[in-house]
């Protein structure tokens, strides 16, 4: 079935779409059990084994192969902790297990971003207002111009530089995100309102810096400097990987944005519609999907953020079939394709609109036939 260029759904179709996806969600909830429990425990075991192995090898890091092997193991450990464990656990995907160690209200990950702050900016703000310009603060993270609906200003000429810096220091960018510096700058938020956010940032950031750059290097004795550089390298690898996967899931060509007006009084089906058109997937091997925290299935994640992510590959074909049923696009492609698309957008949107805008902006049908921007 070919996908129409400008899909438009009737109120009846939106209602039917909502029923189809609600039914799929309920089937997943009814099927949760021992396999999901075993999976997350196995991932945690692997992550801990990689960290212990990496720390052990770094004790002998004066021997170059040991430094390389230890840094690789530590990098993989940090990626798993960030993507497949931390992100997904804090979405509440495993709360049903009643295990305090994997409960979203108690879990804290190995990054400078405090869990409580992140759950507000990500779980609530981003997943509630996905791709609504002016409400979803993940569009550009308050730093970048990532959507045509963001008014151009000379500051955005630095878009590629800001994106590079955000990629290299991504955990710090995530930490600062809930501070809402852009709103502080414009006066929409008062500095006094950020007291709790700043306190948590200070405590978590200091703890992580001491752990990665003082405690573990000190424990390695004469290998202090080599362990410190290994920790910094592992953090860098995790930052670049997380940035790449997250940006490929949200900003490649074809991902659509929405206005606040057209999302007023959204029905369940219209909310699902926005999640599907505002996300993109990345193709890859089973191991690749695990290392992305299954956020390579960003469409499925936005539809069902509190369902264990290991389920996303299992339902991807069914979600795609639902898209085809309603004539909706299913945005997917390889990592290189999606990442190249994101990079091109970052450069394009750095320039004033007159350099790239066409006489008429491409549209997709939105609520009641209103147009959506194609980013």
TrEMBL record:
GO terms for biological process: lipid metabolic process. Coiled coil: none annotated. Residues 66-332 form the Fatty acid desaturase domain. One of its GO terms (cellular component) is membrane. InterPro entries: FA_desaturase_dom (IPR005804), Fatty_acid_desaturase (IPR012171). Pfam families: FA_desaturase. CDD domains: Delta6-FADS-like. Transmembrane segments: none annotated. GO terms for molecular function: oxidoreductase activity, acting on paired donors, with oxidation of a pair of donors resulting in the reduction of molecular oxygen to two molecules of water. This is Acyl-CoA desaturase. It comes from Actinokineospora bangkokensis.
């Amino acid at each position: 079935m070919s996908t129409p260029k400008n899909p438009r759904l009737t109120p009846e179709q939106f209602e039917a779409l909502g029923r189809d996806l609600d039914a799929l969600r309920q089937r997943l909830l009814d099927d949760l059990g021992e396999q999901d429990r075993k999976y997350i425990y196995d991932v945690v075991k692997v992550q801990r084994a990689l960290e212990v192995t990496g720390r052990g090898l770094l004790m002998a890091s004066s021997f170059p192969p040991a430094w390389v092997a230890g840094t690789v193991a530590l990098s993989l450990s940090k990626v798993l902790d960030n993507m497949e464990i931390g992100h997904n656990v804090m979405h509440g995907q495993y709360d049903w297990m009643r295990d305090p160690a994997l409960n979203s209200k108690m879990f804290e990950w190995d990054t400078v971003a405090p869990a409580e702050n992140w759950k507000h900016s990500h779980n609530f703000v981003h997943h509630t207002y996905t791709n609504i310009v002016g409400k979803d603060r993940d569009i550009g993270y308050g730093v970048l111009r990532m959507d045509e609906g963001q008014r151009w200003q000379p500051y955005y000429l630095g878009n590629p530089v800001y994106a590079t810096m955000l990629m290299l220091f991504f955990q710090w960018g995530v930490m600062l995100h809930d501070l809402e510096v852009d709103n502080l700058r414009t006066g929409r938020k008062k500095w006094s309102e950020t007291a709790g956010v700043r306190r948590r940032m200070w405590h978590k950031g200091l703890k992580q810096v001491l752990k990665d750059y003082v405690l573990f290097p000190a424990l390695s004795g004469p290998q202090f400097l080599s362990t410190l550089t290994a920790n910094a390298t592992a953090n860098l690898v995790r930052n670049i990987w997380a940035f790449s996967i997250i940006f490929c899931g949200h900003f490649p060509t074809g991902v659509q944005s929405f206005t606040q007006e057209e999302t007023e009084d959204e029905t369940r089906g219209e909310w699902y519609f926005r999640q599907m058109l505002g996300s993109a997937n990345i193709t890859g091997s089973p191991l690749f999907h695990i290392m992305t925290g299954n956020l390579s299935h960003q469409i499925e994640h936005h539809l069902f953020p509190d369902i264990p992510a290991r389920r996303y590959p299992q339902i991807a074909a069914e979600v795609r079939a639902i898209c085809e049923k309603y004539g909706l696009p299913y945005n997917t492609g390889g990592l290189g394709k999606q990442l190249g698309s994101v990079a091109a957008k970052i450069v394009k949107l750095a320039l004033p609109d007159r350099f790239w805008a066409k006489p008429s902006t491409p549209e997709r049908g939105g609520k009641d036939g209103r147009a959506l921007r194609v980013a």
